[in-house]
Design a protein that fits this description.
alpha/beta; six-stranded parallel β-sheet; 16 helices; globular
Amino acid sequence: MGVPTSDRSAPRLLLLGTYDLGKPRTRLLRQCLRAIDPDLRELHFGVWQGVEDKSVLRGIGPRLAVGIKLLLAYPVLALRYLFVGRHDVVVVGYMGLFDMLLLAPMARLRGKVVVWDAFLSIYDTYARDRGMGAEQGMSARLLHWMERTACRVASRVVLDTRAHAALMGDLHGVPPGKLDAVLVGAEEGVFAPPPAAPRAADSPVEVLFYGQFIPLHGIDTIIDAALDPRGRAFRWTVVGQGQEAVRIDARLAAADAPHVHRIAWVDYARLGEEMAQADICLGIFGTSDKAARVIPNKVYQALVVGKPLVTRDSPAMRELAQDDAPGLYLVPPADPAALLAALERFAGERAALPAELHGQLQRAFAFPALVEQWRGVIARAMAA
């Protein structure tokens, strides 16, 4: 459903729902929408503040708090939406599955275009990637139905990569013409650290990994490499917490690994400082299908500050980096030897690497590029 042709060149946008402003993806989406429509309207009810990893929401207290917020959110948002001003396009941000089922139908009944930034498949994440429930179990089947229904309600469904968009199409029978992909990117103001203090050329290479310790990260590959005799030539900093943290910490506690520095968590605003102290950053090394379809935040963040990076080769990475580039090392998944070989290669050539890395890659996901990607999504949704 569209609007009169004269209005389509300057659509009035509304960002609606319980979208998670703790996620860089959502903050960048909001900034892009404001660049497209300086008068962007927002109807937001915060639900997910402080919930970094929703898969490990434990205890009756936190779950009850989120449940109460959700129960309050939808009557409030529905009432506010009835009296919202003129708008042409409703954008529902991550994670908006419930928003799509409970709020988006109101927008469609009013003849509005609905763009859903699904970002990823919650069903695939729950049942396949993280193995939190059997694919034929009740919870997984309910999620599958909800996600399929949300895709049908949406005018356009947006994912983070073309590989992810193809999966959503296969899972739920979404026509290719209804799917889109917008890169995640990185918040440049946060990830612009000052240069680290100079180190001697023969000093050990400082290796940094940070993340939420989820299966697609392939953290065992990192730990296997760090604990290998070859890995002792490097200094490793491993930052994060999440689904696999207890098991990884047990592995490190049982090993003689003074060269591995374990940090439970670093505030988002301080990640740039940690990156400044590193010589090279690590991406992901998991073997799951999802790991092949995503480009995680940490990859964009390392690229935007010009840090050398080792991460797994994948169809998703090839959407961004089609050719080899200085300071970017793509390795097979779950291969500690290949990870170590990449680090050794970097150690041998770091003095010869350009002072500024990844310039061409950065342009593909810099803020102006993201604005144009979202502008295209909205234009295609209105034209459908």
